[in-house]
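Known limitations

Files may contain more than one protein. Parsers should not assume a single record per file. Below, a two-record file is shown to illustrate correct handling: read the sequence, read the token line, then continue until end of file.
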Amino acid sequence: MFVLGRWWGIRVGVDSSWPLIFALLCLAFTQSFGERHEDWSMALRWTVGVMAGLVFFASVLLHELGHSLTARAVGLPVVAITLFLFGGVAQLAEEPTRPRDAFMIAVAGPAVSLFLGLCFLLVWLLVPGELWAGTLSAGCLQLGVLNLLMAGFNAVPGFPLDGGHVLRAVLWGATGDFQRATRIAAGVGAVFARVLIVTGLALVVFTGWFALGAWHVLIGWFLLRAARTTSTQTALRATLEGLRVEDMMCAELVTAEGYTSVADAVEGPLAEGPRSSVFVVEGGELIGVLGPAEIEAVPAGRRPFAALRSAMTPRSRMVGVSGRDKVLDALLLMGELGVDELCVFADRAPIGEIRRGMVQAATRAGGAPSAPSP
């Protein structure tokens, strides 16, 4: 993921799939403008196409900010916004505790897209068609239609679409059972995804519209995976709810001495298991941590000669958790920092570590380990 920055304190990034989709989107805009305005030069078509792509990119970001700022308004912290293959996702630190809050958060995104779509179409109606060689009018028409389509598509009542979140909120309010409401909404989303896949295959086989059919299949496959992921995450939250870090932590840290080179740490402790960080000690005392960000900051050619003590984040600036913190909060913090383990402190003294892999293994086994081994 590429981090773009922070808006209103929310980390905003794009998934690695976005550059490809952005390029295809700009190409689609350019071809569409060329078909409707044959008098435009190729340079003008591409200029307007790229500008329209950037504005649509901003529209998707505003859609997600609608979710995020509404979540904040009802008291839920927002960790990050990630723009990916077919839109974006706002990552909340915790699930809403009331159906009403869940409903408001869900409808905020499509409401923003609907508003933007109507605004673009209003500009298209009011602006003279010949202004700026018709570029403003043409761009607003395309962007208006796309934003309305985005609002309509997201209104489909199946996870992971916004309509699925609305359906879950309604069912949750009616039944009082959050888990059951999530399963139903995810099931509807899976059915919709399969319909898209079958429709796409039919388009390819019976009409020869390969490109359109392929898009249907790709979107359906993506939504089906997302619906299954939603069900898995909900089950994971239910399993981990109420568990504390002390229930799943390991009482020993995986460490390396401060004089160890970065290259030796990468080829040693970091290569021995699914972990991203190593804790640095001197004289048996913890002095810092070396994680992905610290490793990336050291040029590859210098890693055999750079000692951990010079490359690490010192203990005074380490981010960790306490044994009484929730496991779910620890996992969210790992995701925000991009690491797979965190040091556990008690009265500012290290007492162990909690690992993402350990939590995942415990949930697959159906409970928390009583005495995890290093």
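...continuing to the second record:
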Amino acid sequence: MKVSIQDRELLSKISAVSLVTYASSVGWNRSEVYREHSDIYIGEKLPEIIIPRTEHLGDYASVVSTLIKTFAEVSHSDELTIFRCLEGTDRDVVRVRVSEVEGGTLALNHGHKLITGARDMVLSSGCSLSTPQFSYRAGAHREANDFLNQMRIGHTEQGSFIVTLFTPVIPSPMPSLFPDEIDHEAPMGRRVMKRLIEASIATRQALEQTTAGIENAFKNTVEKGVSANSCEALALMVESFESLEISVSWAQTRPLSMPSNSARFSKIDSPVLKEAARFFKTRSPKLDQTLFGFVRLLKREEEEADGDINLATTIEEQNRSVKATLQMRDYEKALLAHKEKAMVVLKGDLEHSGNHWRLLNPETWVMKSLAGSTILSPRSCCLYRHWRLLTMASVDLLFSPNCFCWYSTSLIEQSLLRCAEIALNSLQLFQISLIFVRKIQELCPYEQCVQSFM
């Protein structure tokens, strides 16, 4: 069936670069300049054609239409196929192909899952460019979301059911004095597409290794862009279809050679992908965590403004030491808190790796000393005396339970009760008391009195 494209708006969207790139790939070569804005192209056993250098011509759509007809005749193809080829000449194109569809149509819910999953795959790949992680808060990655807004979805193609996603225009690389096989200056669209296909291939390999009984097959795929987000997106797409293929075709304006640019999945992969997503989530940072504790160690290089601290705190009712990197202003506060043995409050994303804990991206930092608190009554001096005793005891007990003998049990007990009487509503006092009471329940016989405080 012959199809002729007459829509001037669609024809005008084909760039001059796409026309030149396609013609060059078929065998045409630039011969000479034609007037002010065009060039003449010739080729062996090929008709002479004129290709404009700019889209800003009054009859540009008509010129594109004529060229498409010529390209179709030379390649013995139809105009629609040529148009789609030109449409992706200066863009990277993702194709998600599913098989066994009835009459080239999909159930509405299945189509929604397919497009949503493809979108989430692209977003996950964009998020992984900066720092590969087990899981992402997609909404927090502004650059990845901005790129997603520039992606376009194209018409479905013949052959089962194919969803096509177009990146923004991929420009030709500028000439370099020192050519390198690795395109270090590639635009974000190209980098995201490379990461997407790398993650897809790595996922396919991990699935095969898991089937073969190899443990932790997914663990080493994070650096290639695999995450809980990408696994969930894939699972969403494949659970409704017997087979699914993800492929990327590279813009001819910026050629790229890769060993493989496609990966195939099937319906039976869905449960494994969901389990892999759960695996990644258990190892991803706990988001927006608030920690109460005391500064134990501080470290800052002489030439650096930021510094590291270790916070003695409790996580899931266990005593832990959490490392955090603070900006200069907050680090100075940490120094003061350490000197005064005052409680600090940190908020951020809590990461657990092996036996180590780290607070990432501290968004807020709060430090208050009860000695200078404005919410205390006139009896703050009395409270501060008891507070100091509890603070010193708690800090030592967190890491040196044997030091309990340095403190008088009865004196500590009295301080607890006195603090509770004076400032029971103080959140800081309540947190420090919880830490201390757990230790006192283990080490002293005054359980009844302590429990009355709880």
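Parsers that stop after the first record will miss the second one. For reference, the second record is described as follows. DSSP finds 14 helices and 13 strands in the chain.
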